Amino acid sequence: MGIVVDHNGIVTGGNTNPPEPGGGSCIFLHIWHSHDQGTVGCTAMSQIDLETLLTWLDPARKPLLVQLPEPTYERLINRWMLPKLIDVPPR
């Protein structure tokens, strides 16, 4: 179970730049293997978080993945018209 992040890929029907060699690709949001195991460019999360995200995502609304350190997000929230952060208790 996972979500493909269209990073440095070919998007049909859009006004996009061609993929850059060496620019990375095959980026996914997926279930983590363990709390202490990293990924190589992907974003890993618990199964329940991924399932929640899958039910919320609507491809027709052209979602955009924004991943920033929280202070940077807060600094750019108005300029980029980002949604307010929600405090989520740790699991």
Overview in brief:
Helix content is 19%, strand content 13%.
List the helices and strands and how they pair.
Layout: E1 2-5, E2 27-31, E3 43-45, H1 47-56, H2 70-76
Parallel strand pairs: 2-3
Antiparallel strand pairs: 1-2
Cross-sheet strand order for the largest sheet: 1-2-3
DSSP helical segment count: 2
Low-confidence stretches: none
Kindly state the mean pLDDT as a whole number?
82
The number of strands is 3
User: Cα-atom Rg, whole angstroms?
Assistant: 15 Å
The major pleated sheet works out as: 3 strands, mixed
Distance between the termini: 20 Å
Helix content: 10-25%
Specify the overall morphology.
Answer: globular
Structural class: alpha+beta
Please, could you describe this protein's structure?
- It is a single chain.
- This protein is an alpha+beta fold.
- The protein is 19% helix and 13% strand.
- The protein has a 3-stranded mixed sheet.
- The protein is globular and about 35 Å long.
Task: Provide keyphrases for this structure.
single chain, 91 residues, alpha+beta, three-stranded mixed beta sheet
